[in-house]
Amino acid sequence: MKYRSLGKTGLRVSEIGFGCWPIGGGSYGPVCDENSLDALEAARDSGVNFFDTADVYGEGHAEELLGSFLKDTSRDPVVIATKAGWNFYHGAPQKDFSPDYLRFACEKSLKRLGVGTLDLFQLHNPSLETIRRKEAVTVLEAMRKEGKIRFIGISVHTEAEAFAALQDARVHAIQVIFNLLDQRMAERIFPEAKKKHVGVIVREPLASGLLSGNYSPSYEFPKDDHRRRWLPPKRESDWKKIQCVQKALKSKKMPLVQAALEFTLAFEAVSTVIPGAKTRAQVLENTAASLNPSFVREDVSRLEMLYRREEIFRKELNPR
Fold this sequence. Notes:
Strand order of the largest sheet: 3-4-5-8-9-10-11-12
Order of helices and strands: EEEHHEHEEEHEHHEHEHEHHEHH
Largest sheet: 8 strands, parallel
CATH topology: TIM Barrel
Shape: globular
Distance between the termini: 34 Å
CATH superfamily: NADP-dependent oxidoreductase domain
Number of helices: 12
Number of strands: 12
């Protein structure tokens, strides 16, 4: 496994991290805790040291599983990143970035994870207005000085939100969506993050699993899978994009998952990439992108050119 710097934090993180959303349950179909713990074990065995979770994943279950796993392992310390901002304690999850809630959520996460300090505490997809007000980061900065957290991050959806986060010097890392089907962050956000020495965590590098190539538009997701809500036009469009990518990669003769992850790692501003996994097999498939890479610069350029050339990649069918 190769490691990179997480911005100006001084932390060295594995190129391939572990995204814990799927193991929380209720969002990516059926999940088995035994398989999840085995997947975490496989990740550690492969050199993964960056684990990204959130309190709302399975309403605390993903954090509990990760905490249980870490308690039973005696290996080198890992980097734990979690997120808060969705209050699920009183009914359906609602956005809440108030000082009281963020402090409350931090304490709950510390307890579930079984640690005294969180390595990276991230605001979980706040609005542009919330980021610009900076009050939530001020709360996190206070908790950092108190020793509750080491570093501050913000998970975002849009370029505008990413830019706003990068304007706050107290922010150490941003988490963005970036993959072969959505390359918007590369043009302006990556250079800005690099200039400011802010770490970049790439989420959805496999486009929520679509870049496995296993989910045609006719595939029926389980009831407890958030992808079931995707509208037919989006699914048809994404499938066409995947066919374009596979055609461009035909000469590489490598798994689509590995190609997708190697592409995201080709950008110097990226600190770590956090594909989700529910099984040992998925972990091993993901980590191959760092352990046995095969991409060269020409491969990356070809896929960048494909994205710029084909209009279908830039057509937003379901704006966030």
